[in-house]
Amino acid sequence: MSFKKWAVWLLAVCTVFASLAQFGMSQSLPNMAADPQIMAAWRQVSAQRIQATVQKLVSFGTRLTLSAQDPQSIAKGRGIGAAREWIKSEFERYSLDCGGCLQVKTDSFAEGPADRIPKATQITNVYAVLKGTDPGNAKRVVLVTGHYDSRNSDTLDVNGDAPGANDDASGTAVSLECARVLSKLKFPATIIFLTVAGEEQGLNGSRHFARMAKEQGWNVEGVLNNDIVGGDRSAEQDHSVVRVFSEGIPAAASEQDLRRIRGLGGESDSASRQLARYIVEVDRTYQTGMIPTMAFRQDRYLRGGDHYSFNQQGFAAVRLTEFREDFHHQHQNVRTENGTEYGDLVKFVDFDYVERVARLNAATLGSLAAAPAPAANVHLLTKDLENDSTLTWDASPGGLATAYEVLWRSTTSPVWEHAQNVGNVTRTTMKLSKDNVVFAVRALDKAGHRSLAVVPTPER
Ligand SMILES: [Zn+2]
């Protein structure tokens, strides 16, 4: 080998080692441990059950928030009142099957007159609570939601049919099916299975619920909003993928938060984005058959959803939506025009697709509810100029954590790249420059359940 060739070779080797030293020589991100009970639970999610739920919801003719909810209409089975009573009875039936393990509740309030609500209207959210079994962790809440109201071309048409099979009987079915399969298990933290109304009139139901959660000081760690998860059968649909939308800059960020985000590059590290990344890791671990693909934006262009209500109150919340929507099958009167079928009908829903979305939800909810609480008050010490990085945190509240992992990634990477188990400590120094990577800390228990990751704030 000539000296020149040898020098080039040496340079190449040095470069590789330098970059390894830069980004750490520890293992790349390990999979979370798969919990056999959670695995068994999500496998019970059934396309047939989901299909029966969607068909039942569509059978109420319309579920417009402004539609009938008087006793006669409920008895006849038409309108949102009948849908609400049926959802409640379903949750109650699941609860009977688990010895009364679910608390079935309603959150009912009068809204309007308002923009899309011409006269005062009673809006009712229906939900079931699977109370956490660990006294130190039962106050922690993870939540899944879908909206059971529907609409057709006219948001004020109280009488016309509005089947809403995909939007959003599919998401409602995900909440119900997760309740059915997860209620057979016990988790240290609480899971809430929510179905809201008023989405199509202006997110009224979720706004009321999220405000209630905030006012009552609920510790909501994560919200999964499933809206339009029917996998519409149009030709261009990708039936293997579900989109997960998450806000970058939090809707509830203070001026101080915004200054820090601007200064340090925190645009991709909201708590909602950590939740989105968590879903991706759950998929890697459990392989539920549905690939979550993250969309780094709050929602689709000019569109909104119930996760935003939770974001506004400072909660981590994401939206799951099918890969490609067919706008002929949303918010449309049922009709055929020039050979094109319009309307949100049952026949356009792919129930195997919804099944896999529900499985991903169930695995995520179970993983979060089984895990220790996230580490609290995570800080990165910045008093001195140095190339090492010292992180400190308070122990995960609730006593489930037996160790902590420090995660990191390059500032341009969408996902966590590396993890190092640092043991059961609340302070560690990493031989990495804080200026070159993004850090986070997460708690784990002895079975390998992982909490959500928490990005540090600087401490002088
Ligand atoms: Zn919707």
What characteristics describe this protein?
460 residues; globular; eight-stranded mixed sheet; single chain; alpha/beta; binds zinc ion; 17 strands; four-stranded mixed sheet
Describe the structure concisely.
With 460 residues, this protein is of the alpha/beta class.
* Element pattern in H and E: HHHHHEEEHEHHEEHHEHEEEHEEEEEEE
Question: Helix count?
Answer: 12
Bound molecules: zinc ion
Shape annotation: globular
Instruction: Tell me the distance between the termini.
Output: 53 Å
Helix content: 25-40%
Rg value: 24 Å
- Fraction in beta strands: 15-25%
**Could you report the average pLDDT, rounded to the nearest whole number?**
94
**Can you count the beta strands?**
17
Fold topology:
Blueprint: H1 3-23, H2 36-43, H3 47-58, H4 71-76, H5 80-97, E1 102-111, E2 121-130, E3 140-147, H6 165-182, E4 190-196, H7 199-202, H8 204-215, E5 219-226, E6 241-245, H9 255-264, H10 271-286, E7 291-295, H11 306-312, E8 317-322, E9 335-337, E10 340-342, H12 351-370, E11 376-381, E12 389-394, E13 403-410, E14 418-423, E15 427-430, E16 437-444, E17 457-459
Helix pairs in contact: 2-12, 3-6, 3-12, 6-12, 8-11, 10-12
Bound molecules: zinc ion.
